[in-house]
Specification:
Layout lengths: L8 H15 L8 E6 L5 E4 L2 E4 L4 E9 L2 E8 L10 H11 L3 E5 L4 E5 L8 E4 L7 H12 L4 H7 L14 H15 L4 E6 L5 H14 L6 E5 L2 H9 L9 E3 L11 E5 H4 L19 E4 L12 H8 L4 E6 L10 H5 L4 E3 L1 H7 L5 E8 H5 L29 E3 H18 L4 E5 L3 H14 L1 H6 L4 E3 L5 H5 L1 H5 L8 E4 L12 E6 L6 H8 L14 E5 L18 E4 L47 E3 L7 E9 L5 E2 L3 H12 L3 H10 L3 H10 L4 H12 L8 H10 L6 H11 L7 H17 L1 H4 L16 H6 L4 H15 L2
Parallel strand pairs: 5-6, 9-14, 9-15, 10-12, 10-13, 11-12, 13-14, 16-22, 17-24, 18-20, 18-21, 19-20, 21-22
Antiparallel strand pairs: 1-4, 2-3, 4-5, 6-7, 7-8, 16-25, 23-25, 25-26
Length: 796
């Protein structure tokens, strides 16, 4: 038997942990998953580039049945103690809502029971005494209060499997299982809170599917408040229900189906005869699911509440990204505390949602206000009421045409600099404002309009042609429309996967509405290179980021100076210092006292002011969203320096880690997981030194940026090897291989020479077969040692 302490972690898994699990009765085909990456890795944005942070990966997740996880195991090699992986395992168990955490080094198992049913909470088990699936499942069911046969039958009903291999994400599993277990326990009102873009409809489908298949719920009503939400759900996630499903249309209540989808306006009305839902008996539905339930279902006097009260015997599930809590409307008062919550911040941290930058643009008249001259009239000849008009008035009671043109020009400048085809939503104050914004954007983009008039479209509820283009706008494969101007229609429920720019020229006072608008851009679509997005804010709406109720800060906030493009630049070398912001223009002279405001109830008048009133940008600013959720304004170089020094306190620490690493690529991966974008850093360092940044080794970039050491290029390091004649002790063929490896390093970097498969490539294949080349060193161990010695020489 080999010395156990010489075995790798994977050897410990295959030779000790796997046999123990098999002996305990775990089925490796259906109940055991190894090396499970359950997050995607946070998207890290620097300038125009992005990368991925480190994924969370569990060595083992154990399931009673598919998507019913009950245990996690963290393995370590035998140089560690049995419980060395326990804290890591507990972190994963917490994320995955798993009650049992194990750690092992191949000698035994350390078990932690989070259910509180075991005394002591943590204890050691021999390899032969690992618990069976039935044992852990019984404990799980007792912990959840679902131990009776009928409750377990509901909870054990399988998920829908379409055969494509698609599986729910870990947080969807948590949400689905939490909901099913609550219903099995008899809970009648349930609230699920999941950030926009995290798959609420798919989650709802799996919940309904399992309850329907278990016959716990036989007839289900799914309610939404927008037609597009109902149609998207029916044709996409709910498709497997097939002929058992119908959509209620034309105010007809056909009682022959089991799954009903409805727009709540289609089943309610002001007249009793219009309340189609009353054609069903109060106990017809067993389950009512309310999508986007923040939009009024919890208000005591809302039409949705009429439906919920009528079907009061049914179980009610509310789905929302933004639960509403006001004096008049409370989701939590109606549904109770959420059974599961997955926030925007969590989604960004896990890499399932897109982070974003903010471009803040302040306009002079917005900050200083504007007052008409005595007896001044607007372009329609109306006398303008004499008072100060400010940001809350613009485009509601007063239109400054030059302001509209300025906003449209900033949007156009951004798109021309970044990507003219980036899908963009412009949120305006009202339909009139959306139309004026459309006209301004059309006039600023004549070449795009000449290619296709639908480059800019107004998509509002009152205009059939614009509404007809909504499906094309959200379709990733459809180029047009590119820019959509709107007021309210696109604030919620629209799955705009490739939206890369959101423009806020609308005053937003509601945190619920703000989160919904931000949610239009948070979806990631890797196929179309959508990993992050930008918010361009003209109305200080992004000040809501500072509200404690907001949970996902931006990666960058940018306020361009007058004359600058509204494009967030690659950050400068040094962080911004206090006082660096551009000065405000000189204050205007004091204004005379204001006349009284019009009495309440008077019709709103909208004054239109032409080009005689000019406007200009006062300030713009950009900030990044950091790994800890805080805003940072610093250069890529400074950020990288801080990230490296967080991992390595000194140059000696870094050199020790680099020298002792079996593969340098492992250290490179660790740095990139900390957000150090080596490729972008190479470009920046190269520009500063007047050299090709791609010629630098990651080792030199780190030593230069973090520890102020002058960098050498890979070619310079290779030439030093040649001068020292370090290969004299090897035979002719082995020397040829090492010299080719040095040349390969100079050309492409350290990662290639560490991979033994490089011997199959040119020029090595001209020197002999891989077997012959390895044999020239005396075998594989000797070859790997020679490569290791070469690396030591390269970095000496």
């Amino acid at each position: 038997m080999p010395n156990k302490q010489n075995l790798t972690e994977r050897d410990i898994c295959s030779q000790y942990i796997n046999p123990a699990l098999q002996q305990a009765g775990w089925d490796f085909a259906t109940q055991v998953r190894e090396e499970v990456s359950f997050t995607k890795g946070r998207v890290i944005v620097r300038g125009k580039l992005h990368g991925r942070g480190r994924q969370k990966r569990a060595d083992y997740i154990l399931y009673f049945a598919p998507n019913l996880p009950i245990a996690v195991i963290e393995a370590k090699d035998n140089t560690h103690a049995v419980g060395a992986g326990m804290q890591q395992a507990l972190g994963y168990a917490e994320s995955l809502a798993i009650p049992f955490a194990f750690s092992s080094n191949g000698d035994a198992f350390q078990m932690h029971d989070r259910t509180g049913q075991s005394t002591p909470i943590e204890r050691q088990l021999t390899l032969a005494n690992f618990p069976s699936p039935a044992d852990l499942w019984q404990r799980y069911c007792c912990w959840k209060g679902i131990a009776s046969p009928e409750k377990r039958a509901t909870v054990e009903t399988p998920y829908h499997d379409d055969g494509s291999g698609k599986t729910p994400r870990y947080y969807q599993v948590n949400a689905i299982n939490s909901c099913i277990e609550a219903i099995a326990r008899g809970q009648k009102r349930i609230l699920l809170v999941m950030a926009t873009g995290t798959g609420k409809s798919y989650t709802a489908f799996q919940i309904i599917w399992r309850l329907w298949k278990s016959r716990n719920k036989k007839r289900i009503l799914f309610l939404a408040d927008r037609n597009i939400l109902v149609d998207q759900t029916r044709t996409n996630d709910f498709r497997p229900f097939g002929p058992a499903m119908t959509k209620i249309v034309n105010r007809q209540a056909n009682k022959a189906f089991e799954i009903y989808l409805a727009l709540y306006q289609a089943v309610t009305g002001n007249e009793e005869a219009q309340n189609i839902y009353r054609q069903f008996s109060p106990d017809f539905f067993d389950l009512v699911v309310i999508d986007e339930c923040h939009r009024g279902s919890a208000a005591e006097d809302s039409a949705w509440r009429e439906i919920l009260d009528y079907f009061s015997h049914a179980t009610h599930i509310g789905l929302t990204a933004t639960p509403r809590e006001t004096r008049d409307v409370s989701n939590i008062h109606y549904f109770g505390e959420p059974v599961y919550t997955y926030t925007l911040r969590q989604g960004i941290a896990d890499g399932f949602l897109a982070p974003y930058k903010v471009v803040r643009i302040d306009i002079d008249k917005d900050l200083q206000g504007w007052r008409p001259n005595k007896d001044q009239t607007d372009r329609n000849g109306r006398l303008i009421a004499d008072r100060i008009y400010n940001q809350k008035d613009f485009d509601r009671t007063l239109v400054l045409e030059k302001r509209t043109e300025l906003v449209a020009r900033k949007i156009t400048e951004y798109l021309r600099a970044i990507d003219p085809w980036a899908k963009t939503i412009v949120f305006c104050e009202d339909i009139d404002h959306a139309e004026r914004m459309r006209q301004a954007l059309v006039n600023l983009n004549p070449e795009r309009i000449a290619e296709n008039r639908k480059y800019v479209m107004r998509i509002t509820g009152d205009e059939p042609e614009g509404k007809a283009e909504l499906d094309n706008f959200i379709d990733p494969e459809s180029r047009y429309p590119v820019i959509a101007t709107t007021s309210k229609l696109l604030t919620t429920g629209v799955d705009a996967q490739t939206c890369k720019l959101i423009v806020l020229d609308q005053r937003i006072q509601s945190m619920t509405e703000f989160k919904q608008i931000i949610g239009r851009g948070t979806r990631i679509n890797e196929d179309y290179d959508k990993f992050w997005f930008t918010i361009m804010d003209f109305k200080k709406a992004s000040e809501l980021f500072a509200d404690p109720a907001f949970d996902g800060d931006p990666v960058q906030i940018f306020e361009p100076k007058e004359g600058e493009l509204p494009v967030p630049p690659d950050p400068p070398d040094l962080p911004d210092l206090p006082g660096d912001e551009p000065p405000l223009p000189p204050p205007q002279p004091p204004l005379p006292p204001l006349p009284p405001l019009p009495p309440d109830g008077e019709p709103r008048i909208k004054y239109v002011i032409g080009g005689e009133v000019t406007v200009y940008v006062v300030a713009e600013r950009v900030q990044y969203y950091g790994p800890d959720g805080r805003l940072i304004t610093e250069s890529l170089k400074d950020y990288s320096r801080r990230a490296v020094r967080k991992e390595f306190a000194s140059l000696d620490d870094f050199l020790r880690r680099w020298t002792t690493a079996d593969k340098k690529q492992a250290v490179i991966d660790e740095l990139e997981a900390q957000g150090v974008l080596l490729e972008a850093l190479a470009d920046e360092v190269g520009k500063k030194l007047g050299k090709d940044g791609k010629a630098f080794d990651p080792f030199d970039l780190v030593c230069h940026v973090a520890f102020d050491r002058p960098p050498l290029s890979r070619r310079e390091r290779a030439e030093q090897i040649s001068k020292r004649d370090v290969f004299a002790r090897y035979g002719e063929q082995a020397r040829a291989v090492l010299e080719a490896l040095v040349e390969k390093y100079a050309d492409t970097g350290i990662q290639d020479i560490e991979n033994i498969s490089v011997l199959t490539l040119d020029p090595f294949n001209k020197l002999g077969t891989p077997h012959e080349l390895v044999g020239a060193f005396g075998g594989r161990p000797a070859y790997l040692q020679a490569v290791h010695d070469l690396e030591q020489q390269l970095y000496a």
